[in-house]
Amino acid sequence: MVRDSGFSYMQMVLGFLLGYVIIAFVLLPIYYRHGLSSIYEFLTKRIGYSAGKTASAFFIISKLSGAAVRFYVVVMILDKLVLAPYGIPVYISSLVLTIMMWFYTRKGGIGTIIHTDVLQTICMLSCIVAIGYLTLRALDMSVMESLNIVREQGLTECFNMTGWDKGDYFWKMFLSGIFIPVVMTGLDQDMMQKNLTCKSLKDAKKDMISYGMCFVPVNLILLFVGAILLVYAGSQGITLPAKGDEILPYLAANHMSKMVMALFTLGLVSAAFSSADSALASLTTTIVIDQLGKTNDVK
After folding, report:
1. Which of 28, 56, 212, 286 is 20 to 30 A from 38, comparing alpha carbons?
2. Dist. CA 287–CA 280, nearest whole Å
3. Is residue 291 a contact partner of residue 57, using CB atoms and an 8 Å limit?
């Protein structure tokens, strides 16, 4: 992403902020006013039984397929970069990871997921920061020196206010950034389930706004690490893969220290657990409440 469009992704991130404000002050009050455990209950109450059941069915299909693909990608990367040299079959690693996620999700429910998600997010971000630090050390540069080089190479370009037909045109990305969280977070049971368990609407709003605000520093860190990885590759004369998503795994596996590889693996596993266990809980809620018709007061 950084190689092709610099920091222009931040234009969309700014739109995210407004999108999360809309969720906090438009959607959350609706969900709390109706006392929902599943957001698709709202469709059942307002439109009818068939509408709620159909929406939840589409969610189940999309979430199952999406979670499966994400989990598959993570397992394949782990197998290729870490486990294969030790002769561990891919089906064994998949089975072990699945059982682990099922066990602690079943044991503690949404409370466990919230705590483990916090831990996994901290772990993932710590790994990214550590990779950035190790890259700077390999370059023998300070943060400010690397920023100057990144700026000189044109990788920090952020706002594009001209050329409406271009993909990184500001208003295209900003408006897209508003609608993406509304659709992919505010109307998604997987993303909303943690907010629906807050003690009050005020707490839920606070959580949603703070969550949206975190996108700015986190994405700046990710983009900066991506930029210095490109600087590192250029300084070493490394030919990078055509796909941007393959740059970090490629560098970690072939051109950087074992510590970077270990951190990359740890961050990858953290991201996989955070996504998969949350999907497991949301699918359970949707199937039980929306498909089987159990009310949220049934234990």
Report:
1. 212
2. 11
3. yes
Residues 106-132: pLDDT tens digits? Answer: 766 666 677 777 777 787 788 888 888
- Which amino acid type is present at position 53? K
Residues 6+ apart with CB under 8 A from 220: 7, 10
Q: How far apart are CA 69 and CA 110, in angstroms?
A: 23
What's the CA gap between 41 and 293, in Å, rounded? 10
Q: Where are the domains of the chain?
A: 2-291
Query: Span 2-291: which CATH code?
Result: 1.20.1730.10
Distance, in Å, from the CA atom of 261 to the CA atom of 267, rounded to the nearest integer, reads 10
Would the pLDDT of 299 be above 50?
Answer: no
Cα separation of 85 and 89, whole Å?
Answer: 10
CA–CA distance, 264 with 127 (Å, rounded to integer) = 7
Tell me the HSE value of 172 on the side-chain side, using a 13 A CA sphere: 13
Measured CA to CA, the distance from residue 187 to residue 217 in angstroms comes to: 25
| Contact by Cβ (8 Å): 74, 63 | no
Answer positive or negative: Cα dihedral of 106, 110, 114, 120: positive
Contact 3, 230 (CB under 8 A): yes
Instruction: Give the Cα separation of 168 and 160 in Å (integer).
Output: 7
Spatial distance between the Cα atoms of 292 and 286, rounded to a whole number of angstroms:
9
- State how far the Cα of 84 lies from the Cα of 62, in Å rounded to an integer: 30
